[in-house]
Structures are given as C-alpha cells and as structure tokens.
Amino acid sequence: MAEAHEAVAFSFSVGHEGFNVDVSYDVFKALFYAGYRSWKLRCRRTLNSLYNSLYPGHPSRGIACCGVVAGLYFKGYDPSFHIIDWLESNIFRRYLQPRNGKILACIVFGGGGYILFIQLRQYTLKKLFSYHGWMYQEHGKNIGLVPKIWSVLVKLCVGRNPSLFSCQNFLPSLPLPSLDETLRRYLRSVRPLYDDNEYQRMEKLAEEFKQTIGRKLQRYLWLKWIISTNYVSDWWEKFIYLRGRSPIMVNSNFYGLDAIYIRPTTIQTARAANLTCAAFRYRTELDHENIKPLMIQKFVPLCSSQYERQFNTVRIPGKETDKIIHYADSHHVAVYHKGRWYKVFMFYKDNLLQPCELQLQLDEIIRDTTPPNYGEEHLAALTAGERPLWAEARETYFSSGVNRYSLEAIEKAAFVLILDDEDFEIGTQDVKSDWPTSDKGSMTGKLDDYACAILHGKAYNRWFDKSFNFIVSRNAVFGFNVEHSWADAPITGHLAEYVLSEDIMNYGYDALGNTCGTPRFTALKPIKLKWNIPESCNLMIEKSLVQATKVYNDVDLHIYVQDSYGKGFMKKHRLSPDAYIQMSLQLAHYRDSGHFNLTYEASMTRLFRDGRTETVRSCSIESSHWVKAMEDPTVSKVERIKLLRAACDHHQLQYRDAMSGKGIDRHLFCLYVVSKYLNLDSPFLHQVLQEPWKLSTSQTATTYDDKRLTKLMSQKPDLAEKMALDRLKNIAAAGGGFGPTPASYEDRYPQFNRKKKGIKAGGGFGPVAADGYGVSYIITSEDLIFFHISSNKSSAETDSKRFGQRIQQAMQDMRELLESESKSASSSKNEKKISTVVPSTDQPA
C-alpha cells in the first residue's frame, strides 16, 4: 500500500553521502492536470454565469441583435432615434475613427437594448411566478380564465432549454405573511390540541403579543424581507442546524437506502466503483449545468440553489456554532475501511477514472493488512458526538502537521466512501404479507438492521460532517448518509436515483459481477492517511464515542412495508395519496397515544428563490373530527367518508398554502429570532417554539425520471431476463445466500417486471421529540409504500413496531371504509337497472 509520502512531489534529505533529492514525476503530472482541470472548470462557470444572466435570452441572440442594429444603421435606417450618433460624437469620437466609433456605438446600443429587453422579460416572469392561483385548481374540473391567461403569458415569456441555474434570476422572493393572518392560522391549527381553558389562554397570549411587540417585530422582519432574497433560509440554516450543540448523528443527519428490488452484484468494490464514478459523472453534469431545473407543470421552475453545495462540502465544528465550507473543486474521495482512512484520486491526466480502474484501487484497499494508526479506527466518532468536544479536539490536535494534512484530505474530498465490513439484507420479498409471521418478522428485522446501519452505523465508521457518505456493504448493498444543514432530502434523492440508474443502465457488470471494461492505464495508488494521535486526543475520541453510542443505542427504527394497496386505490377514490397517508398517520397516532398531538409534515418552498421547507400542520380540526368519528361506533360510514374527504381537502389546502408562502411556522420562527436580537421576551413566541412535534413526518418524492430503466423493462425484457438469470447463476456459484431458487426471474428481480416500476425504498431520519415518532414514507408504485418509523427506546410512550402495526390497521380500516362506499354505489346502480321499466311492444317507440 502506498504511504503518505507518495503524495509529496519531491523529498529532500542530507545523508553521509551528500544530498538526496527524490522527485515524483507522477505527482507533478497530477498537480498539473488538476490545475488545468480547475482552470477549465472556472472558465466554464464564467460562461455559464453569462448565459444564466441573459436567460430567457441567449448571448448569440444578443450578438445577432447588435448585427441587425448595425446593418440597419449603415443602410440609412436609424433604429436608435439618433442615440447611436450621440454616443459616437460625445463618447467614442475622441478615441476612435468616426466609422469605428459608429460601429462600437451600434454594438453598445444593440447590446444595451437587448439586455434591457431581457431584464423586462425577467421582471415579467418574476411577477408571473408570484401568482399561485393555478395550484388551487381542482383536478378534473375546468381551469378558470385567470390561470389560463397566466399559463399563456408564462409560456410566451419563459425561455427554452434552461440550464440548472438559468431560472434563478426570475424566481420571486418568499412573501412575508401578515401578522394577523399567521396568528389566525396558528390558533386554528392548535384548536384540536387544547381543551377550552388552554385554548382561551393561547388566544389571550396571541392577542397580547399582537397588541404589544408583535407589530414591532413584524416591521423589523419586513426590513429583512426587503434586503434579502429569502427572509427565512439563512436564519433557518444558522439557528436550526449550525447552532445545535447536540450530536448531528441521528438528530440531524438522514439516510437513504438502496434500490430494494435489485442486487446487480455481490462484489463490494465493483459496486462501490460504479456508484462512485456515477456520482462524479453527476457532479460533472452539475458543474456544466447540464441538469435541467425541476419544473412543475413543465414550465414553473423550482429553485436550484441547494445543488451548489452537494459535493466538496463539509461542516466544520465550532464551540458555539458550526460553519459550512464548500470547496470549488475536488479530485479525490476519502475512503474508510476497517478503521483506516485513504485518499483515492479520481482523475488521471485530466480524465475521470473508469469503474474498472477505480475498482483496482479499491481492491488494493481491501487487501491491505496495515493496522490502523493509534486512535485512527474511532477517529470519526468525533463527528458523531457533542459538537463543542469535537471543536476543541479539532483546534487542539488537528490544526498543524500530519493530522492537519490527513484531516484536510477527508474534509476536502468530493464525498466519503465507506467500504463496510458487514453484510446488509434487502428485498421486499423479505416482508411479503403472505409469508408466515415468523419468517416475515425475521426478514423485517434484517431490513431494520440495514436501515440502522445506514443511519448511524457504529458511530465511528461514518464521517457525519461530510455533505454525504456513500456506504457499500461487504455484500455490495448500498446506502447513503447525509448531513442536513446544506440541503434538504430531495437534492440527495436526485443524486441517488441518478447513480442507481447509471450503475445498472450505463456501467453494468460482467458475468462474474466485476466492473466492465479494461483499464487504460495504471492510476495513482490509494494513499493511506497518517495520523499522530496523542493519548489526550484519544481520550476525547473515546469520550465522543461513548456519547454517540448512547444516542444510537436508544434509536428504535422500524420499516413497515405497506404492500396490500397503494396510491392506485387512493386515486381511484379521488383522494390525494399524500393527504390519505397523513390521515392514516393521524388515526394511527391517536390510537397509539390516546390523544391528538402536534404533527409536522415537511413541504417545500422552492417555488421561491433560496427556498427550503415549510411546515404543514397535519393535525387539524377536520382531521380530528374524522379520527373521532372512526373511533365512534355510532357514526355511520357515510358520515365517516364525508369527514375523511373534508379532512383530505383541508390538508391539501394547507399544503398548497405552505408551498405558496402562506405557512405558519417559518414566519413565527423568524419573529422569535428578531425578538432575541432585540432582547424582547414574548410568552406567546416562547410557548409556540417550545411545543414538541410528537409526530414528525415527511414524504420522499421521486425527482429523477428514470427513463432508461423504464425503457429496458418495457422494450428489452429478454435482455433484462438474461441479466437477472446470469446474476443469479453467478451468485449461486459463488455461494451467495438468497434462499430458495425462484420459479422465474421476476420472483427475484421484480424491477424487470413490466408492471412494477417503483424500485426506491426511500429513507428516514431520527425522532424529533424524545417521546415522539419520526415517520418518512415513499410511495414507490401503485401498490407499495415504505414507512420508515423511528422513536426512542427510552420512551415508555413509543414503540416503532407497534406504531407500524397501528399504521397497518389504519390503512386497512380506511380501505374497508372506502370499499363500502364503492359497494353501496354499485348496488344502487344495480337496483336502478332492475327497477327500470322495459316498454312493451305495443307501446309507441
């Protein structure tokens, strides 16, 4: 294995025989090509910035505009109304010949006019995108006149073929709600949580706040809204994420799982090489801005600013607050395996390594028998424990020398790759509803163990400060752990879907499960990082490990797979799938706790510049009425269905309000921050911010359209079958344990079943409240939903498996309720047919 000194371009030493200079030309070449690549990237970013500033126009159109103006002017038609003559005579004549001055004046006028035209289009689009009435149109009904006119205007003004950041200039700012409206919405949202006396107390606190310091805080917040692109995002990042002093493992970081239906290989280094190269390919697409911005209705763009810090980003600990550092470029990844850290270069002579070339380096890491340095094995536990302890250790022991060099190799890496030394078990076959209970419970437990391993691992085998960690198990199962402060889950979800698609559809594997292709050259060897950990530092590492171990040992994580029905049934009954699932969670949580609780559902605000999230308060007056009706045997099914539809409609209205900037919680949060800056105390705001979210939920959405995988499933089933059967034979020959041999390839590889297209298992997060639940869910297909349920073992009020059973029962009760409506409608139709009088033959037609 290459030692650390191999990364040094030259070494100089003095011995008995004189001077000795050892030069590494490979490293000099690597440095040269790294600089060359950075220069090219900087030039490309400059050109992209120019292109984005002119969007929805284009620089070539601006040049054409200058040419047309010059052509008309010299033909005797002055389109500038003598402005060109004025520019030439008053500005350019003293420096240039008259003809050259006129040419330059034509260019200035044409270019200035084109830029002014583009600015007008951008301003118009900004105003058009501030309108959100189109979101409130009911599905299946005629679109109103105003939304129709709006859509026509948008299509006329918006450009074609936007790059990733092209639409940023005309995204509107997040609107600042009125104080009265926010207080009204808040009081309505907490009505089901309080009895009459408590609710009257909250009403008095809200009125007192409004009549005393509320207006003053609103005016200060209005000033921030005027001068900032988004009045929430910077404070949200700073105070919610970076100021937190507790461990970010479990409490902040979230995780994502592998494609649940597919096992393309069981060779760890092959899978890791494919996924890592796919991630760098995705980063290249980001750097070149070739990825298109996500659009709603195909022409309403979402903010793309969160993509900027996806790679080359790290969270740096501080004693009072952390900070996020983003590096312009990175040419390597940091790799962890069996307690040792490595630096692996991803480029050779300005060429990105192919998977087969990277696999050679990873194989060398796997074969390495060098023991970890003292303190190295548990080093990453510093990122999992209390933040002040990590800040102190970093400042004391990692600010100079070999420790600083090695730490920078990790922090400046594009991301971290973990080659885990454990096996993970996945597959929805493990949790089929028709399996025996004992087998199903055993397999579900394996899926839970897999999710726990990705969420927190052993606390010392993940670098939780990095923007994300790719984790590949010994049997080649993939997962990722994400630091939350720099972006929200859909951004990493986009990356995960891309790399999983590239892994199968572009790179693939040979018959033995290794990467495809032949290495073009022998790349630089992996560099094993050196550490000089003194005893005092190792004591801090072990102390942090104890803190982190206490946190993750308390995690109760369970994945419930709802496979009896899914969104197809919900849509059939004209109900929003998200609203339907939220109502099932309300019913399940009420049965679990015996009362209503404050419920958080994350909604995005990326329709606005630098937007992140807003809260949808799922526990509402409407939902509480429906839940009570479900628990009251005297209420008829017809009435229950009516209340369910009203609850779902209200939830959709809340979700739309949150997306369009009419949320409650971010506004109140910012008012609270202003009050702290002004040293003003508010019992109302203190009460609002201290209310625990006993049920915190989030839906994982599919953001990347996997057209190539769908194409393979639909157009090349024979190839898909051959790939699956070859893989099964190779795994069986290698002694892989998949259990009984399936009757057909679709039994083991349902992703190749043309009827099944959902392959994502989603991901999850830790509980927000000590005595509450965290629930993340993903609707993967017409009849499959994954629920990731987390809680704390130390809480006597919660049990994740029990709550999964509550969800299962709630979903079943809702299905039976709606099926009764269908049966009733069907029987009434049959009765009408029977009661229809058939005219006799002697009656006139």
Structure at a glance:
The chain has 25 helices and 22 strands. The protein is α+β, with helices and mostly antiparallel strands and about 850 residues long.
Question: How many separate domains?
Answer: 4
Name given to the CATH homologous superfamily of the largest domain: Choline/Carnitine o-acyltransferase, domain 2
Strand % is 5-15%
Percent helix, as a range, is: 40-55%
CATH class of the largest domain: Alpha Beta
Description:
Pfam families: Carn_acyltransf, CPT_N. It comes from Rotaria sordida. One of its GO terms (biological process) is carnitine metabolic process. Its EC number is 2.3.1.21. This protein is an alpha+beta fold. The protein has 4 domains: about 5-50; about 55-135 and about 150-160, no CATH class; about 250-430 and about 455-555, Chloramphenicol Acetyltransferase (2-Layer Sandwich); about 560-655 and about 690-705 and about 755-825, Chloramphenicol Acetyltransferase (2-Layer Sandwich). Helix content is about 50%, strand content about 10%. It has 25 helices and 22 strands. The strands form 6 sheets. An 8-stranded mixed β-sheet has the order 15-9-8-12-13-14-3-20, sandwiched between helices. It has a 6-stranded mixed β-sheet with strand order 16-22-21-19-17-18, with helices on both faces. α3 crosses α4, α17 packs across α25 (about 800-835) and α18 packs antiparallel against α19 (about 635-660). The radius of gyration is 30 Å and the shape is globular. About 45% of the residues are buried.
Q: What's the topology here?
A:
Elements (H helix, E strand, L loop, with lengths): L9 E6 L2 E6 L1 H30 L4 H16 L8 H10 L5 H32 L15 H13 L21 H12 L5 H32 L5 H10 L11 E4 L10 H20 L7 E2 L3 E2 L11 E4 L6 E4 L5 E6 L2 E6 L1 E2 L2 E2 L2 H13 L19 H11 L3 H11 L4 E4 L17 H19 L12 E5 L5 E5 L6 H19 L19 E2 L6 H19 L1 E8 L4 H6 L4 H17 L5 E6 L8 E5 L3 H11 L5 H23 L5 H13 L5 H8 L4 E5 L7 H9 L1 H17 L11 H4 L14 E3 L7 E9 L2 E9 L7 H36 L10
Parallel strand pairs: 8-12, 12-13, 17-19, 19-21
Antiparallel strand pairs: 1-2, 3-14, 3-20, 4-5, 6-7, 8-9, 9-15, 10-11, 13-14, 16-22, 17-18, 21-22
Helix pairs in contact: 2-4, 3-4, 4-5, 6-7, 7-20, 9-10, 9-14, 11-15, 17-18, 17-19, 17-25, 18-19, 19-25, 20-21
Enzyme class: transferase
Protein name: carnitine O-palmitoyltransferase
Pfam families: Carn_acyltransf, CPT_N
